[in-house]
Amino acid sequence: MAKVLMKGNEAIGEAAMRAGLDAFFGYPITPQSELPEYLSREMPARGKVFVQAESEVAAINMIYGAAGAGARVMTSSSSPGIALKQEGITYIAGSELPCVICSVGRSGPGLGGIQPGQADYYQATKGGGNGDYHLLVYAPANIQEMCDMIMEAFDKADYYRNPVMILADGMIGQMMEPVEFKELKKEREVPAWATTGTEGKRAPNIINSLYLNPEDLEEHNIHLTKKYDEMKEKEEQWEEYNLENAEVICIAYGTTSRIVKNAIETLKDEGINVGLIRPKTLWPFPEKAFKEYPKTAKAILVVEMSTGQMITDVRAFNEGRLPVYFYGRSGGMIPTPEAVVAELRKIIEGGK
Amino acid sequence: MAIVYERSKGLTNAETHYCPGCTHGIAHKLVAESLVELGVLDKAVGVAPVGCSVLAYNYFNCDMQEAAHGRAPAVATGIKRVRPDNIVFSYQGDGDLASIGTAEIVHAAHRSENITVIFINNAIYGMTGGQMAPTTLLGQKTTTSQNGRQLEGQGAPIRIAELLSQVPGAKSVERVSLHNTQNIRKAKQAILKAFKNQIDGKGFSIVECLSTCPTNWGKSPVDAMKWLEENMIPYYPLGVFRTPEEEI
Questions:
Q1: 3-state secondary structure at position B213
Q2: CA distances from residue A299 to A268, A275, A315, A325, B97 in whole angstroms, order as listed
Q3: pTM score
Q4: CATH number of residue A315's parent domain
């Protein structure tokens, strides 16, 4: 299929529909509103369900109901809206239901601002709802990758019976890029555990996250942990860029990784080698990428559009081997390649 | 020997956790019998609330989902929209529906989701131990209104049937009571009608069932029934507030 030029938010919707999306439940919020707008037109036209809920809270609980009834479902929002969805997200994880949640990040805290941000790393990777649960979290850096990740996300959600999040930022949601949509490989079957009515042929199916007996709840948590361990084993994804002979290793994801790549190219022209490890999954964090550094590496620079969140995980997996520096802009300010170059020079020239 | 009465096929054999004299058991029975009599038990998907009836998913003999507190109408919306051929109902108490879940119930009614809502109003929080509900009567003592509910600061008890009867999408709104046999028979007819509406695609139906909570009211089951009749019905009048035939 030929490439088409599309806005990020609309491309999310198209990719989800190509992945067999049965129903979308959402609520408007900048900078992701083009997604529900697009789906409000396209889903009914393709015989599918679109509902604008009364709130993010209601939308995520509609997702719970529809996922529990065996449908392939998605919701989307942005930072404060994702905060509102946390109640439903932990119920969905606890009840082991599959769904995809698109988070098109803006800046915070509170109502914050509507410009792009990456200050929802903790929100996405460290929970937000109550209890021991995790989301599988993808962090796309361009629209093509985002569309590919969305199609993958639905299958992973089914496989693990767990919510999967696509953590984009307002930059990716709002920009236009050429994209090619893949076609769905095979039709999805309605899961046997779904509440579709017994038809008198089986015992009732129950969707539930309540375990009043502590022994049962601990057993449930151990079962969930095994799934998360399997995700850590199988799902870590990252990109390595110019790592060979790198003096400094940059760590950045999403939009920021593209800015870092520009900085790397600038320095390369001067004969200075800087590399990049770009996490493509934020949970599980690509721990394996940190097993061994190039021998030339003297330091790590974490670049984020926040005041420093992913750096916590980088420090954990670096285990004190290299000094870890940070450069971040927040509040909707975007780091420039020049500023990243300046930070890198400071590190390389020992000025830091 | 001919069987003259038996447990509804719409209920499982599980022993319920409800207190002696609690009317949840009656309401469960009426819902279960209605599903069986209308021949839709095999197609039914129920949504249980948070509250005393949180374990309703163990008692109804059909597919069930357990919702977060107050969110049952949103969960039911999700189910019904993707499975329009199923019969979807929520079963909610007054803390769940009339307090934390007011947005969800009002908007499910506004959209006229083709679902059936069974609303149990016993004027108190049961599961958490007798706290004030939005439906607690003025002067009624609870663990969080120990001097009796006051108009000032705590407001008047919320009348859900009257409130929803103002919503165009709420196609069928009825209030019944479970305090004696005569009224239980009327309640059964109301619940049957609320499910029949859904089968016929008429849109949102709700039956508010005035109920007792002997344990948290501090009364014997018989006194509780009497208290309901003498105190709740004057404030929460019984009757049909909306029918699908009446447009507003």
A1: coil
A2: 17, 11, 12, 8, 56
A3: 0.97
A4: 3.40.50.920
